[in-house]
Amino acid sequence: MKKIISILCTMLMLIGFLDGISYSVLASSSKTLDDGWYYIKNVNAQKYLQVKDNKGKNSQNVEIGKGSGAKGQKWYLKNVGNGYVTLKSDLGNYMLDVECGENKDGANIQIYDGYSGKSQQFTIDTTSSKGVYTIATKSSNGKRVLDAERKGTADGTNVLQWKYGKDKKNQQWKFEVIKSSSSNTNDNNTNSNNNTTTVSKDNLKGAYGNIFGKVGSAVTLAQLQDSKSLDFIKKHYNSITMENEMKPDALLGSSAKKITVAEAKKKGYIIPSGYTEQYVPEINYTNIDKALKIAKDNNLSVRFHTLVWHKQTPSWFFKSNFDNSKGYVSKSVMDARLEYYIKNIMTHVYSSSNGSVVYAWDVVNEYLHNSDSGTSDWTRIYGDEGTKPTYVKKAFQFANDILKEYNVSSKVKLFYNDYNTYQVADKIVSMISYINSNGKVCDGVGMQSHLGLTWPSISYVEEAVQKFTNAGFEIQVTELDVSIGKGNSISAKEQEQAKYYSDLMKMLISKKKSGANITGLTYWGLSDKTSWIKDVSPLLFSDLDNPKKAYYSVIEASSTY
């Protein structure tokens, strides 16, 4: 059924594109409202734009209903440039969204995880009546607007996209400023020019969700299965990255479990057309499935980390007959294995009932640090390919193929992820330009950001952010922590760490305000107690019950947005 829907969406988008060519933009000139919380009232029905059943989840329908003050009727309008706005529901980090990014009449209006793409941007256009507006969709290039279906006035009347018609009151809306603060239970409150609401000071996603969209942490499956840890995660984050459970060694195992190609086909594995070997390795999806289900059940999004890496990938995957005692395979054989691995994992995710939670993939991790003096398994096969690595480009192409197949390219992003990106920023720009030379398949850069009090300087990190911005890349901070240095006590360095974190956040916010497309902020661990570098106390919490000065400095820095 998912594939059928995906195909239909693709067909509808194409039909809508052809249908929309002949129309001119009919709505009057855009008037941008101030950022802030609003109720949005349909003029014809005198009812309010709301999320069906007041439930925050992907693809939940949008309709009109009698004013109730419920969260599902509250919308945060944010100006995002060039006359466009986004409208975020008070139910979480869900944006008003045109289903499938369609541009034809009848496209449904829903909410979906915020990613600020075309289907989630609108213009608020004036009409001949004062204080009355139409809401035009960017996905239709402004030719179609939000419409209460068939001029309906009953509670539950569906809202869809339809060609603009002058004086059609079912397409007209009033924006009523919410003068009191949003619900205390809202974790995504944000400062606005109207001072209609304040930043939530008791959690990270409340402070930064409206700035960067995704606010996350590296977690383990055990932490997701522990009630106290899960409650902590849900309080502070709307995104998670599995620390190890989705890396190649976790999915392939220390030794190959081989099955014949014929057996693999019966089990539903994808076998690439260029695959010439008799066997394939089975992929263990058990922990992926467990993590995705917990994420879906708890309204958490997922960054998938990582598909291609020179570490934590078993050497047998590169050897003849998947036998570690044998020699390395040829480039062409490895290309086919790479395609097999990437396409099967991504297909498994997006064909599952929980796959919609995955919004970003670290397709390739740390390529520019992978040589290991020429001894890494990838280098042994492909050699040193500099900033034009053929297998890296193919990895992104394979991943992009699956996104297109499941029609999620507009909602899911593909990243190159690396550490010390400020040292190799120019190389990253060159490499991604090569990767995208035959069409865009890499959306941007994951800046790991394992930082320290004495190095790198904030300005050094800022230079890299600016280079990636100039290149047009999407940017996500993916593995943030700030070490106090070995041999130092946290009591002696806590204030210094708090200032570094604060200065870093203020810089990132400043770059965001000036145009940097920063769409995610992920910390590498829940607390110092469970950090991969616990001896240098790098995180915002010493343990789940004890926030550090750094935490409060980060929360406070959000007020500069």
From TrEMBL:
Signal peptide: none annotated. CDD domains: beta-trefoil_Ricin-like (cd00161). Residues 198-557 form the GH10 domain. It catalyses: Endohydrolysis of (1->4)-beta-D-xylosidic linkages in xylans. The active site is at E479 (nucleophile). Gene3D superfamilies: 2.80.10.50, Glycosidases. Pfam families: Glyco_hydro_10, RicinB_lectin_2. Residues 180-198 have a biased composition (Low complexity). Residues 179-200 are annotated as: Disordered. It comes from the Bacteria. Belongs to the glycosyl hydrolase 10 (cellulase F) family. This is Beta-xylanase. The lineage of its organism: Bacteria, Bacillati, Bacillota, Clostridia, Eubacteriales.
